[in-house]
Please model this.
Amino acid sequence: MKTRSLFGRLWSGYLSRHKPRIAVAAVLMLTEGAALGLFSWMLQPMFDRVFVGGDVGALGWIGGVIFGLFLFRGVAVVVQRWLLTQVSQRSIADLQTDLLRHLMTLDAAWFERHPPGSVMERVVGDALAIQNVWKSFLLGGARDAVALASLMAVAISIDPLWTAVALVGVPVLILPMLVLQRYVRKKTRALRATAGERTVRLSEVLNGLDTVRLEGMEEYQAGRFRALADRIVRTETRVATGQALIPGMVDVVTGIGFVAVLATGGAAVASGDKTVGQFMAFFTAMAMAFQPLRKLGGLAGLWQQANASLERLFELLDARPSITSPALPKAPPAEAPDIVFEDVHLSYGETEVLRGASLTAPAGRTTALVGPSGAGKSTLFHLLTRRTVPDAGRVLVGDTDISEMGLAELRRSISVVAQDTLLFDETLRENLLLGRDPDESAVTAALEAAQVPEFLPRLPLGLDSPAGLRGGNLSGGQRQRIAIARALLKGAPILLLDEATSALDTRSEALVQDALDRLSVGRTTLVIAHRLSTVRDADRIVLMEAGRVAETGTHDELLARGGAYAALWRMQFREEAAAGQAASAGRG
Ligand code: ADP
Model:
C-alpha cells in the first residue's frame, strides 16, 4: 500500500488549491525574515562609522534603512495574516465538509462502533486542533526559519569561529527533543480520545435529560463527567509541559552559547583584532536568532499535536462504507413495482433475525406485515432501503435485485413514514421541502391531502413556524401529517409505513389514517402494524413469526383458516372489548 505522510495528504487534498495565496505569503515571510538579518548587519556601520568613526552624516541613511525595514515588516505581517487565515480557515472548512459528506455514506454498523459524540469531537475538536497548529505553522514557521538562516548568515560572515562557539550546545538538544516529541504525540493521542469520550458523555446526558432527572442521576452523571474532565486536565498539563520543555532547552543552550562567545570574542575586541561594531552586530544577530529558534523548537511539539489529530481525521475519511452503489447501476422503477423478498437470511452477530423469509408485495397494493415484536418486520424495511444487506437471498423491486441499483436512486423511489417522524429544527416549510423546489400548487395539494390545513391556522407563522428541537413544537399527529405531506411531495412509487399511527390518540389517528389512505393510492405500500384492526382492509396480510413468513392471505381468508392469525385476532379483539367494557363501566 502506498503510504503517504499525513501532511502530504493534507497538502494535496486541501492546501495545494490555495497555492497562489501561500506563495505570496511565503515571499513576504522570506523577505520579512531576511529583513531581520539585514537589521543586525546594519549595526556594524552604525557602530563603526557613526559611534566609533564619528561620521554623523551616515546616521541619516542608516536610520532611513532601519526604519524602512520595520515599516516593511509591519505591512508584511498584516498582509500575511490576512492571506494565511483565509487559507487555514478554508482548508479546514473543506476538510470538515468532506468529513460530513463521507460520514453520511457510512453504515449503521460503523456508527455502532463510533458513537455520535466521538465523531462530533473529531469533526469539530480535532479539526480545530489542526487549524490552530496549522495557523502557527503558516504564520510563524517559515518566517522564523528564514530569520534564523539570515541571522546565522550575518553571524558567520562576521566570524565563523564565533558562530561555531555560540552553537556548541546545540547537538546536546537532539536526543531529548526526539524523545519529547514522541511523548507529546502519545499524550496528545490520549488527550483527543478522552475529549471524544467527554463529548459522548455530554451528548448522552443531554439527550437523556428526562431520565437523568427522573432517576435522580444528576450527581452520578456529574461525577462521571468530572472524572473525564480531570483526566483531560492531567493530560493537557503534561502535553503543555512537554511542549514547553523544547523551547526551554533551547534557552539553556543559547545561554551557554552567549557565555562562550563573550569569553572568546570579548578578548578579541579588547585586543583590537575585531571592531566593536563587528562584535555588536554579531551579538545582536545571535540574540535575535534566539527568538525564532525558540519558536521553531515549540513548533516541533505543536506539529506532533497536529499529527495526532490528523491521524484521527484521516481515519474517519478512510473508513469505507460496506453498502455502496454498483459501478453500472440499473434504474429503479418509475411506476409502482412488485416487491419480492426471496428466501432472505440475516443475522446480527449470533442472533438469526431472518431465517428464509419470502414474500411478495404486489404492485400498487397494500401489504401488511403483522406478528409478534422481534419477528423481523422492521428488518425487512431495513433490507428494502439497503440500510443493511442480507446474508443470503435477494430483494427484488420490479424484477431487479436492489443491489444492482444506485443507492440514492433506490432511496428516492421509497417514502418512509415511521412511528415518530423526526423533524429537523427548521421551519415546517423547510422540513417539507428538504431542499427540493416543487411549485406552490403541488405543495398546496400535498398539504390538503395530508390534512395539514386542519392545524396550520393554529400555528403562529403557518408553514414558516419553527418545528422546534426534534419537531417538539408539534404534536405527534401533526408531525405525522407533515411527514405524509413530505412523502406526497417526494412522489416515490413505494411507500413504507412503520407503525405510523400507533403513537397517536384516537382523533389524530383517524386524521392521519385518512391522509395515509390518500398517500398509498397507486403506490406499492408495505405497512407494519401492531394493531390488527388498522390493517384488516389491506389487500394482503403477511404474518411473520421468528424470521419467517407463517401465513399469507386477506383478513377473511386468514380468519377462515383458523391459524395463528385467527388466534392473534381473537386475542386482540378480546383485549379491545375488555378495554371498551372497562371504559363504559367507568362512565356508568
Ligand atoms: P420487529 O419489527 O418484527 O419487531 P425487528 O425486525 O425490529 O423486529 O427485529 C428483529 C430482531 O433483530 C430483534 O430481535 C432485534 O433485537 C434484532 N435486531 C434488530 N436490529 C439489530 C441490530 N442493529 N443489532 C442487533 N440486533 C438487532
About this structure: The longest strand covers residues 351-361. Residues 3-318 form a domain with the ABC transporter transmembrane region fold fold (CATH 1.20.1560.10). DSSP finds 18 helices and ten strands in the chain.
